[in-house]
Amino acid sequence: MIQRIQSIFLLLAAGAFGGQFGLPYLQTPENDPARTVPALTDGVFNPLDNPGLLGLTCLGAVVSLAAIFLFKNRMLQARLAGVSIIVAVLLMALVAFAAKTTIDQTPSGGTVNFAVGLALPVLALALNWLASRAIKKDEALVRSMDRLR
Questions:
Q1: Does residue 149 carry a pLDDT above 80?
Q2: What is the extent of the structural domain holding 65?
Q3: What is the tally of structural domains in the chain?
Q4: Which of 64, 94, 95, 148 would bridge with 14, disulfide CB 3.0–4.6 Å?
Q5: Residue 109: which region, alpha, beta or left (left: phi > 0; alpha: psi -120 to 50)?
Q6: Alpha-carbon gap, residue 61 to 15, rounded angstroms
Q7: Helices 74-105 and 5-19 sit at what angle, rounded to 10 degrees?
């Protein structure tokens, strides 16, 4: 059913993926020399500044949301949660690489601050892992009940 704990974890994971559009990874103050870096011209670095980040973030959100509605097919739901875990790991790696590259491009005297958005891929990974664990636990319970019949 949709009200199971794995559905809540998957919904929160989709929210963590989607929240990356609202919470930036990096920020720069107004009138700072760091705004000459192409990714920081608007003062924030988020998934919209990199096509790879945009694709992985959208993919992770869609896969997590799709897995919620597959509650009748737990094995497929578990596989999709696993795919979402892989997407979250790839996203974390790409965010780290893109943030480091952006910071390295910053001219001397420029200020780049880390923001809350850097924690969201890690949160999405943890929530997808919890959902996968709950799905497997639910499947084991169903199989044990089938043996009793």
A1: no
A2: 5-142
A3: 1
A4: 64
A5: left
A6: 7
A7: 20
Question: Inter-axis angle of helices 5-19 and 51-68, to 10 degrees?
Answer: 160
Quick check: is 112 in a domain?
A: yes
Q: What tokens appear for 26 in the block?
A: 């990096």
Q: Quick one: which H or E segment has residue 28?
A: none
Residue 147 lies in a domain: no
Q: Are residues 138 and 74 in contact, defined by beta-carbon separation less than 8 angstroms?
A: yes
Q: Note if the pTM is more than 0.90.
A: no
At CA 139, angle to CA 133 and CA 143, rounded to 5? 145
CB 53 within 8 A of CB 39: no
| 124 in any annotated domain | yes
Contact 93, 21 (CB under 8 A): no
At 11-61, the pLDDT tens digits run: 999 999 999 999 999 999 888 888 888 888 888 999 999 999 999 999 999
Residue 115 in any domain: the answer is yes
Token digits of residue 108 = 């001397």
